[in-house]
Amino acid sequence: MSDIYDFKKYKKNKQKNNSFYALGIILVFILLILGIMYSPLFEVIDVEVIGNKLYTKEEIIAMLDLSDGNNFFYLLTKDIKSNLKKSNKIQDVNAEFVFPNRIKLNVVENPPLGYICQGNNYIYIDKEGVVIEISNKSPKNLPIITGLDVDNFKEGKQININNKEMFLDIGNLINVLQKYGLTKEKLMLDISNKFEIHIYINNVDVKFGPLYEIDEKVKKLVEVLKHISPKDRGTLDLSLYEDKIIFSPIE
């Protein structure tokens, strides 16, 4: 009877010791993992950004809530793309992790199409009319867009667009103007009347007319502007550009 009791006691103690042993191994493993994860050897010392033209490396790193001091393994578990929701300036990003301490970001930017003046605010909008940014700084090399109802606007939200098809055409027009280098000039678009679009370039009011054959009309516009001094004031009628283009100077 005593031998049976001793055997049960021995078996119980052995199971208890095995449990402590297993728990100890798990604890050591966890401490080892934590030691590796927080080791200075795995601190990210270089964040490389490619594909950026509009925003600097520092701006993009700030948008994605990254820094050179982040731990490599921490970033592996971090959903970098989820941080895009915090910024409307980036359309997509692919992250490549280079062991043990580098990260490479390939970004696709969401460039502003133009901006709208509302009081002291400059409202940057993208090709879909979504507000990218609201700033009090005057933008450069971007067209001013007038003729839109912007009583209510909020970052990340689309402005009120009654005619979405026309807005897509406006996006196409601005892209063509950029292609021919005209957005480097002081430029304003009046789109209040879709049948009579006006483009104000420097001191010239260009009667562009409806949004068709955009590329051909802008190409003609570029040729005519070569013969007009930036100081000249007047009206340039492109509505009948296939037959004749009339420039009416204002003294």
How would you describe this structure in keywords?
251 residues; alpha/beta; Ubiquitin-like (UB roll); Rossmann fold; 2 domains; 3-stranded mixed sheet
In short:
The chain has helices spanning 2-37, 57-63, 72-77, 164-179, 214-225; strands at 46-50, 90-98, 102-109, 114-118, 121-125, 131-135, 144-146, 187-190, 197-201, 204-209, 234-237, 246-249. It has 251 residues and is of the alpha/beta class.
The residue ranges in which pLDDT falls below 50 over 5 or more consecutive positions are none
Q: Count up the domains.
A: 2
**Beta-strand level of the residues, as a percent range?**
25-35%
Estimated radius of gyration: 31 Å
Protein model, in words:
With 251 residues, the protein is an alpha/beta fold. 31% of the residues lie in helices and 25% in strands. The chain has 5 helices and 12 strands. The protein has helices at residues 2-37, 57-63, 72-77, 164-179, 214-225; strands at residues 46-50, 90-98, 102-109, 114-118, 121-125, 131-135, 144-146, 187-190, 197-201, 204-209, 234-237, 246-249.
Topology overview:
Layout: H1 2-37, E1 46-50, H2 57-63, H3 72-77, E2 90-98, E3 102-109, E4 114-118, E5 121-125, E6 131-135, E7 144-146, H4 164-179, E8 187-190, E9 197-201, E10 204-209, H5 214-225, E11 234-237, E12 246-249
Parallel strand pairs: 1-3, 7-8, 10-11
Antiparallel strand pairs: 2-3, 4-5, 5-6, 8-9, 9-10, 11-12
